[in-house]
Amino acid sequence: MTIHPHNHQSHQAKQDRNARNDWNVIQLIGRLGREPDLHYTPGGKAVTNFSLANNQGYTDSNGQVVQDTLWVTVTCWGSLAEITNTYLKKGRKVLVVGRLRPVRTWTDAHGEQHKSGIEINATEVIFFDDASAAGNDNGPTDRSTDNIEGADIPF
Predict the structure, then answer these.
(1) Rounded Cα distance, 155 and 153, in Å
(2) Model pTM?
(3) Are 68 and 57 in contact (CB under 8 A)?
């Protein structure tokens, strides 16, 4: 492969940019733990938040079945926010794809700020069960139309 000087420079710049960014993608399947909450930023962009319960069961050393639930806050932006707010209800099963980000800040005894806790900035939400399973008679039921992508996420 031959690299021309001008291509090499742009390739190097791309490598430098990628060196600063690690891969951050998560996929979780779970059920909504509460109704979605839609609001708008001062600039008019739609934002919807909901909690997602991801359940994991296992058998402990005593043979007892243990159920662990991981609760994650999910944030959707733009048209994805409006659609999820319209069609999702508490109990609805979904697949969420997005980026992890810290949500809580706290200050230690030395005055240093730290971040803890996580949320998912969703880029895609897929509805698994039909809307009637969560008590909603409206909404998409064809899985091919349930794939919603947030193309205008501000990050």
Answers:
(1) 6
(2) 0.66
(3) yes
